[in-house]
Amino acid sequence: MVFTAGQIAGILDGDLNGDPDIAVHKLSKIEEGEKGALTFLANPKYTSYIYSTKASITIVNKDFVPEQSLNTTLIRVDDAYKSFSRILEYYNQVKNNKTGIEQPIYRSENVTYGTEVYLGAFSYLGNNVTLGDNVKIYPNVYIGDNVKIADNVIVFAGAKIYSESVIGKNCIIHSGVVIGADGFGFSPNNDGEFQKVPQTGNVILEDDVDVGAGTTIDRATLGSTILRKGVKLDNQIQIAHNVEIGEHTVIAAQTGIAGSAKIGKRCMIGGQVGIVGHITIGDNVKIQAQSGIGRNVKSGEVLQGSPALNYGDYNKSYVLFKNLPKMSNRLDELEKNTVQSKEV
């Protein structure tokens, strides 16, 4: 894809200093810029690179004043970082704007879909599947019976969406994701064996949810496993049955959340966090990486450790943890001196 400086300035509503017809076809860091590349300068630490970059176009803040001659066309905007992010988003939209139906695919007779849909080769669409406008289904995707997918959803190659799942608008589901597999429900019988409990619920993703590669979201035993609007999941996360995650919560990789846990709005959960089932975590909670959460958490708490402590208490305790060998040596020395004093 090729864009001219004039086109980019129009997209960003920026001021152009230089050749409006100069074209770019790729993106780069400013220190690695070369002919045909678009880059940006937002951090003052990188200012020196703008005088040596070979990038054809550079996005800068409006208050940037060059101290040397430049070999790059400038586009001046209010916020260079945000504007470059807009270009990245625009670039992705154009790149992913595939349409049409490739062959071979399997599509049941009662599948319905809107306009500008893309169905990649070897995808499978079961009975009563409904797809909205501008839905992109990449190759080797499985979509089970009665699944509903709203407008502007992207499902990347190899994802599996089990029956009855509901996907809201503007969601992104990456490769290897499994949505709607059975929850881990087994009941012991009198012989000490475990009998499977049927998982009859579904999974609901509300609008603007991102699900990272390899993540699994289990269907509910009864009712729904629900990810509310704007939830963002990293790669390789396990969401168990009947979990509910509040709006705009973000969760980093390798976190596991056990069944029926309820997580509030705008929480930030680090990588490799373990959360037990049937607890409630409030809004605006921050949990540091590798923490273990085994209790209810009030809104606004910041936690670290396993089992997790208040973040401030954990740091104070850690000072003691790392000094335990020294403290032990001092105790041994005190005991030795005490014994010697008694003997004297």
Automatic annotation (TrEMBL):
Domain UDP-3-O-[3-hydroxymyristoyl] glucosamine N-acyltransferase non-repeat region: 21-89
Molecular function, one GO term: UDP-3-O-[(3R)-3-hydroxyacyl]-glucosamine N-acyltransferase activity
Pfam families attached to this UniProt entry: Hexapep, LpxD
Active site: 241
Metabolic or biological pathway: Bacterial outer membrane biogenesis; LPS lipid A biosynthesis
Keyword Transferase applies: yes
Keyword Lipid metabolism tagged: yes
Keywords: Acyltransferase, Lipid A biosynthesis, Lipid biosynthesis, Lipid metabolism, Repeat, Transferase
CDD domains on file: LbH_LpxD
EC number: 2.3.1.191
HAMAP family found in the cross-reference section: LpxD
Role this protein plays: Catalyzes the N-acylation of UDP-3-O-acylglucosamine using 3-hydroxyacyl-ACP as the acyl donor. Is involved in the biosynthesis of lipid A, a phosphorylated glycolipid that anchors the lipopolysaccharide to the outer membrane of the cell.
NCBIfam families: lipid_A_lpxD, PRK00892.1
Family statement drawn from the similarity comment of this UniProt entry: Belongs to the transferase hexapeptide repeat family. LpxD subfamily.
Assembly mode: Homotrimer.
Protein name (record): UDP-3-O-acylglucosamine N-acyltransferase
Organism encoding this protein: Pricia mediterranea
Gene name tied to this protein: lpxD
